[in-house]
Design a protein that fits this description.
Elements lengths: L1 E4 L2 E7 L7 E7 L4 E3 L6 H13 L9 E3 L5 H4 L2 H8 L2 E5 H13 L3 H12 L5 H5 L2 H5 L9 E3 L4 E4 L2 E7 L8 E5 L4 E5 L20 H12 L6 E4 L8 H22 L7 H5 L14 H21 L3 E5 L2 E5 L1
Parallel strand pairs: 4-5, 5-6, 6-7, 11-12
Antiparallel strand pairs: 1-2, 2-3, 3-4, 8-9, 9-10, 10-11, 13-14
Helix pairs in contact: 9-11
Length: 323
Amino acid sequence: MREISDGVYQLEVPMRYNPLGYTYSYLLRDAATLIDTGVGTREALESLSRQLRRAGIELSEIRHLVVTHLHGDHIGLMEQIRRISGAKIVAHRRAVEIQRERLEDGGRIFEETKNELRLLGGGSYMNFLSGFGDRVRRKRSVFEIDETVEDGDLLSLEGEEIRVHLTPGHAQEHICLHDEKRHILFSGDHVLPKITPHISLHDPWGGDPLREYLQALDKIHGLPVKTVYPAHEHSFDDLDGRISELKIHHKMRCEEMKEAMRGGAGTVYEISSKVSWDSRPWPRMDFWTKRMAAAECLAHLVFMRNNGEIHEESRKGVLHYSL
């Protein structure tokens, strides 16, 4: 835990079995506000409570919980903290819609995952997936959001004011929060200093998240920010420089996938197997990591398809992409 500005604290919330090690939660002490909470484990809750106490506030005194996006390492303690403190949960309007969709789609997740594997060329993993049927069918938990915000809103939090920027791509509901007075940007997972946020797509007709992500990078480019405080890794100063690096990364990733298609058309899983992923080589990935890589590959392929750079065709119910 450290004070990063007058009355603003960066809290390290641990998460096991994740190479990132922790999620940063940010405390605006005078406004009794937390931005994100970390994972929903006892260890995380106890660690967060200790750090809050060192910052001069009890967990029971928290009044606002602001959600950057609905991934488990950011929202795991939302409901527990609300039960303890009565805090109001604030998120973008799209988060409410996504949670409603999750409730409605819960029973179809397993069948949709099987259809996804067939469509993207991952049919060879079907038997493996069958062993996880109960786990995949399990309904995802949701929580009530008390207050919604829109892009461009100035969120007033008992003396603190933070500008909301909708930044989809990593998640449709993702927001960055700009403290204009302190020249601080709380970037969530939208801009990280070293790794690139996971931009994924599981349905080739379900949007164009990479395009949205690149547009959202352009949106925050040039903001008057001295320091960026992300949800992982470490703080950094050159927001515009990092945005340029991220855009170059995705351009190079697209070129690498085009290179993989020079020998002929390939399925999403075939093309994914030829990409030099940062985490580990394709043969060493477990199924779930391969599925994440394939989803990221599809996001790039759809981006290029929509640009008219590559072709998409269905062969016996399996999508193939070519130059």
